[in-house]
Amino acid sequence: MSSAETTRAPFDLAVLFKAAFLAVIAVFVLVPLLATLLGGFKSLGELRVNPFGWPTHWEWQNYADILFSARYWQLLRNSLIISTLTVTLTLIVASMAAFTFAHVRFFGSSMLLSYLTLGLLFPAATAVLPLFIRVRDLGLLDTYFGVALPQVAFSLAMSVLLLRRFFKDIPYELLEAALVDGCSYIKFFRYVTLPLSRPILATVGTITFVNSWNAYLLPLVMLNTDALYPWPLGIMIYQGEYSSEWHLILAFITLTILPTIILFLLAQKHIVAGLTAGAVKG
Amino acid sequence: MGVAGETAPQALRGPSWDGRFTVLILFLPPALLLFTLFVVLPIGEAAWYSAFNWNGFGKPTNWIGFDNYRFVLETRAFWLALRNNGLIIAVSLAIQLPLALTLALMLAERFRGAVALRMLFFMPYILAEIATGLIFSFVYDGDYGLVASIWRTFGAEPLHLLASTDTAMLAVLIVIVWKYFGFHMMLFIAALQGLDKSLIEAARIDGATRSQALRHVVIPLLYPTIRLSVFFAIVGSLQLFDLVMPLTRGGPADSSNTMVSFLYNNGISRMRVGYGSAIGVILFVICVTFAFTYKRWFMRDE
């Protein structure tokens, strides 16, 4: 609202009420997260009598055991491979398609674009059984690609839309001039469009990465070998093995969500930009 | 390309295929192929497989027509799952979105800590559903969890929220609000920041109070975003799965299944391909019908 309203009386009841409301919500959000982090520093016995509070004795060993286990790093490695594959392929395939839709006029262009954007409506879960059979028949079951390729396919609709809108803003005269000078479409794409589009590529890349990094259903269906599991699968298995040893499970959860939180803090601009850009118009 | 003497736009639109052809055959097929192969065809195949009693091996031969749909619709657990999806939608619309809107109105203004609070409230959305579910299965744990310890300080017998058919779904609903309100808040904040401030100031100059300006100017200006938020909330609610698995796996006694966890528990984990595909098709029809109706009725102007 207008800046005049920021000067207020020192004991404004409305302000006080507002602050209290925000504090309650902040506690609601923070307590489960803090309890997870701190719970990893407690012994199982202490957790039972003191799940909320500060640890009386810091059990660094819980975290150390996980950090020195091969299993933890293997899960992160698998997640990293699948997510990187997904992001790279999505960016390449989606930006090529988006460029064509933005700058090349051809018969059926708008029809094909609508076809692709129908993908926004399709929930991945509805088709997961036939998808499993397709991936199996292609011999991709139990491979990183078996997870990554469907993820790319499902992220295409949103990615192409976001990229196309950005590409369209690159002045048309630029393309005209380049073509007259004998530059090809492909060279223009490679040396003008892509370098100019770093912000939107970062946005699409980050969103795709987070989705892939957190994904559960597709890896669950497509992977059978523990050694290939990404962390959401691995952590479910870990939880099953250590069923009530909550101190270890909490330490494990903390260490697996840490990369997500770091990524978020580094890339929050891109994440929020992508959400709102994607949301403003479908 | 290079049609000498012509102006460039004509050259681009001209009858010759020039460089466009190369781009078309190189740049479009990968996207179209992946999309068709992994998104469109599987949905069509789901419809096909749903007519068979098939375990996924060999070729489907045991044609049973619409029986799988009948089996699904005769299962009480399916209707429970459908009801739960309805509950999730209701909570999203009645609690989550108003909360998000209220917070957005508070945090769109500039004051110390506003940005930090925005980030904090958005944080749960970034976490994986699996991690969120596990965190809350600790929170709800009857022996070690936070809820149990609160209960004990009041001298009551600790209760196992996730293990009781009466409370499991309620517990899941609370986690859903925790996880997703920040996403909607961010959408609203982005919309508020894009509003034309002069309209609000004009209303204030004309004598509207703060709350009048809010009710008659700001909220109506937010309608497109609110409609979009409702759309996301409903489509998201219909597809909820990852969050349920670590919390309850749909149990106890199917009391907290969603349609997708029902699909997983009955179709995928037992490889009943026909039966599972029928559930998938039902979910698909619900989602698409909803999306088209909603777009037609509420988002026509966009």
TrEMBL record, chain A:
SUPFAM superfamilies from the UniProt entry: MetI-like
Limits of the ABC transmembrane type-1 domain: 76-267
PROSITE patterns: ABC_TM1 (PS50928)
Family to which this protein belongs: Belongs to the binding-protein-dependent transport system permease family.
Annotated signal sequence range: none
Cell compartment(s), UniProt: Cell membrane
Transmembrane annotation, as ranges: 20-41, 80-101, 113-133, 145-163, 200-223, 246-267
Source species: Bradyrhizobium xenonodulans
Recorded topology in the membrane: Multi-pass membrane protein
Keyword Chloroplast among record annotations: no
Top-level taxonomic group: Bacteria
InterPro entries assigned to the protein according to its UniProt record, in alphabetical order: MetI-like, MetI-like_sf
Protein name: Carbohydrate ABC transporter permease
Keyword Transmembrane: yes
Primary location: membrane
Keyword entries, A-Z: Cell membrane, Membrane, Transmembrane, Transmembrane helix, Transport
Pfam families: BPD_transp_1
PANTHER family named among the record's database cross-references: ABC TRANSPORTER PERMEASE PROTEIN MG189-RELATED, ABC TRANSPORTER PERMEASE PROTEIN MG189-RELATED-RELATED
